[in-house]
């Protein structure tokens, strides 16, 4: 089984500031750190103001399990109030090749 990359693209709700979102993201990091199969996660901001949340999982089962746990979590409810739900796209891909530089 290959590792899986989850890419979530989203924009903030018009009433949400970046600072508000990043404070809530601390809770997201806490949630993710407790999920089995997590390898790495980064959150980045695009030039257009939208965000990319990129998460590496050990396999698709870990990604799916974490996603189901997320949807049932309090942090999901918090984040759902801060983002434009219609802007959200989620994609899962299998890792074909990697390079890590220490």
TrEMBL record:
InterPro entries: Dimeric_a/b-barrel. This is ABM domain-containing protein. It comes from Thalassotalea marina.
